[in-house]
Give the backbone structure.
Amino acid sequence: MKTANKKHTDGKLTLEEIQSEYHKNDVCMSELLGNLPTRGLTMEEAFELNIAARKWADGDKFFRAIDGEELKRL
């Protein structure tokens, strides 16, 4: 995958790269994310990037509840 934006990201996958790939391909965001390497991201960083990409592409809304707390929108 070509780098869409050469920011200082230490080679980690960025939202801008995902957006560029999304525009070049005829696949849904879920399929694209399932096939992109996470290149140096921690599990938490990959999760947050996944959420950001789905919000951007599909307008999805995500919520989190921890230990019975009220839902918190991500």
